[in-house]
Amino acid sequence: MTVQPGFIVIAAVLAAGVILGHRAAERLFGTDDRAPSFDAAMIELIEVGFEDDTWTGLLYLVGVGEAQAFNPLYIGKTERRGTSHEVSHNIVNIRRNLDKFARWGYGLDYHIEDFSHAMFGFTAYRGPTREYARWAKTLFTTFDPPTLRAPVTMVLLPWHQDSRGPSGLLGSVASAEKEVIALAGALYSDRLLNVDGRLLLVPPRRVNLSPPQPVRLQESRRANGT
Predict the structure, then answer these.
(1) Which one, of 219, 211, 192, lies nearest residue 14 by Cα?
(2) For the chain, which residues score pLDDT lower than 50?
(3) Domain map of the chain by residue range?
(4) At what angle do helices 130-139 and 111-120 cross, to 10 degrees?
């Protein structure tokens, strides 16, 4: 797999970056471990990113549908720099960084472990969080066995210094995350699990995951060659 710098076509359509299809995403969200294809895509994206001084991190999007039919359920980010280190602890030594793994690690307070904790209720130093319990109830009809309401797709989008968000303005990974969440929230308020970068606490209910028509957003300079 070759990672290509891309552009956002999301509210959610993504026409570049790495799109992991239904099989990988179902493995990722249907069990308490990551799909090998997800690990390989994340590792390659980050290692290729480290070779480029302009790479600043990545956006990840969980949604339903593929290619031009993709629509988001959750949007997050992983930045190259940490709060006090040149390289974030979330991505350093990514091949061996299983507990963090760009926010998708097996440690508590990371997506896979917290999501699994909410689904399977294993013993830990704290109980499952309500945020991930809401996410689980949105994505699954049953937990045992895990049964998804609809096939889920994962999107990974590398972000660079010259990448542009939906507004067309240059921005950091953090600003791009907020911008995409705000736009997707306006368009898909009944299904998006984010609010200002956090999982939205919504009443547990069945959500219609049939993807509506996608909306094309702003391309980055890398996509159009300018």
Answers:
(1) 219
(2) 1-17, 197-206, 211-226
(3) 18-204
(4) 80
- Identify the burial level of 123 via C-beta atoms within 10 angstroms of its C-beta, where 0-12 means exposed, 13-18 middle and 19 or more buried: exposed
pLDDT of residue 219: 35
Question: C-alpha angle with apex 3: 32 to 179, nearest 5 degrees?
Answer: 75
For residues 196, 202, 206, 207, the Cα torsion angle rounded to the nearest 10 degrees is -20
Query: What's the confidence (pLDDT) of residue 131?
Result: 87
- Please give the Cα distance from 123 to 6 (Å, whole number): 41
Q: What is the pLDDT of residue 9?
A: 31
CA dihedral 16, 104, 78, 75 (to 10 degrees): 60
Query: d(Cα 65, Cα 54) in Å, to the nearest integer?
Result: 30
